[in-house]
Amino acid sequence: MDADVLVVGTGLAGAAAARALAEAGWRVRALDKGRGPGGRLSTRRKQAGGFDHGAATLQANTPAFAGWLAEEIVAGRAAPWGEGYVGVPGMNGLVAGLLDGLDVHWSVAVATLHREAGSWRALDAEGRVVGAAPALVLAVPAPQAWALLRASALADDVVPPRTLDALAGIRYAPCWAVLLESEPSAECGPPDSGAGDGVDAIYREADKPGRPNAGHWVLHATNAWSEANLEADAGTVALRLRDAFIARTGIGPEAIRDVSAHRWRYSRPLGILDPVPLESAGLVLAGDAFGPPPLTDVPPAERAWLSGRAAAGRLIAARQPKS
Ligand SMILES: Cc1cc2nc3c(=O)[nH]c(=O)nc-3n(C[C@H](O)[C@H](O)[C@H](O)COP(=O)(O)OP(=O)(O)OC[C@H]3O[C@@H](n4cnc5c(N)ncnc54)[C@H](O)[C@@H]3O)c2cc1C
């Protein structure tokens, strides 16, 4: 279990940090409560193909992120689509590529963190040590970072109360996503606008590069509808948004094979925190809610990637001997 750094959370931010640290020669141990790579760039696999039920597409506003995506296109893990980019063969291919060859442990939910004698230890809910290292990248959505740090009861000189307060102030927009499987032959023109039915966007997976025509569709509900129906059960949400899909596309219920819904409590942050200067305790926070002012103008996924790279850079700089 010897590692120089623990990375908790391997969405785009944690994966970017893990890759940059590994490239700098650090031994990385990464932990994620999910069953596979992606985080909010998840792709749910079914036999016939996948559903990108998190972010459907990425935009690049900085040369650094555009440059990385260009490399990923050459590597076959990304493709241009419309005015943006998608991962190939699913959005999660981008995260999988960053984590390729690294020591990543799935289905490991970190419940508490401890700092003792210059080392971090991560424990699961049963109190088992699931990782230990002198440095820690915490790359989970801000409300989850807040909950984890609060449950960990760390000393004030490790995580000052004002940092916890700042994290507590970051809110996220929720999003209900519906995964709908139709007969692959079901066709429709551009979906009607259907204002007021709660649907923000409809994506047909087969329209994206590198996907088979499996009749897979993803619907994203609007922020307002998602907020209003946040605690509804997934089955009810799936049926209501399926009805909106039928009305908008003209694809009838007889052509729909399956429908399910996924609730994203934290889809996109509504505020941004400056990077928190915690490196003295070997801790950096990363994710789409973190970034100095220049990063506020970039879309959240890009900010997550940039923040992961920046977090790695800050740990590497903190380890250099001072001249
Ligand atoms: C429906 C939807 C649509 C979106 N559309 C866009 C878009 O068009 N453009 C755009 O730029 N962005 C979009 N986003 C946002 C984008 O997906 C995110 O900004 C980005 O993926 C965040 O990456 P991250 O690494 O910061 O967080 P995440 O991807 O959330 O990664 C955090 C990881 O931490 C893990 N984790 C959490 N707690 C623990 C714990 N206690 N122990 C272990 N692991 C833990 C989680 O399993 C997860 O894998 C969208 C998001 C959603 C949900």
Strands of the widest sheet, in order across it, are 7-2-1-11-16
> How much helix, percentage-wise, in residues?
25-40%
* CATH-assigned fold name of the largest domain: FAD/NAD(P)-binding domain
Biggest β-sheet, characterized?
A: 5 strands, parallel
Question: How would you briefly describe this protein structure?
Answer:
This protein has 323 residues and is α/β, with parallel strands linked by helices.
Question: How are the secondary structure elements laid out?
Answer:
Layout: E1 5-8, H1 12-23, E2 28-31, E3 44-46, E4 49-51, H2 63-74, E5 78-81, E6 84-87, H3 92-99, E7 103-105, E8 112-116, E9 119-123, E10 129-133, E11 135-138, H4 142-152, H5 161-168, E12 172-182, E13 199-204, E14 216-221, H6 223-228, H7 234-249, E15 256-269, E16 283-285, H8 300-319
Parallel strand pairs: 1-2, 1-11, 2-7, 11-16
Antiparallel strand pairs: 3-4, 5-6, 8-9, 9-10, 12-14, 12-15, 13-14
This protein binds flavin-adenine dinucleotide.
The site of flavin-adenine dinucleotide has 39 residues, from α1, α4, β12, β15 and α8.
Give an overview of the whole structure.
- There is one protein chain.
- This protein is 29% helix and 26% strand.
- With 323 residues, the chain is α/β, with parallel strands linked by helices.
- It folds into two domains: 5-42 and 57-170 and 271-319, FAD/NAD(P)-binding domain (3-Layer(bba) Sandwich), CATH 3.50.50; 172-268, Alpha-Beta Complex (Polyamine Oxidase, Chain A, domain 2).
- The strands form five sheets. It has a five-stranded parallel β-sheet with strand order 7-2-1-11-16, with helices on one face.
- Helix 1 (12-23) runs parallel beside helix 3, helix 1 (12-23) runs parallel beside helix 8 (300-319) and helix 4 runs antiparallel to helix 5.
- The mean pLDDT is 93.
- Flavin-adenine dinucleotide is lined by residues 8-14, 31-34, 39-41, 54-55, 57-59, 109-110, 139-141, 144, 148, 175, 177, 220, 264, 267-268, 287-288, 299-302, 304.
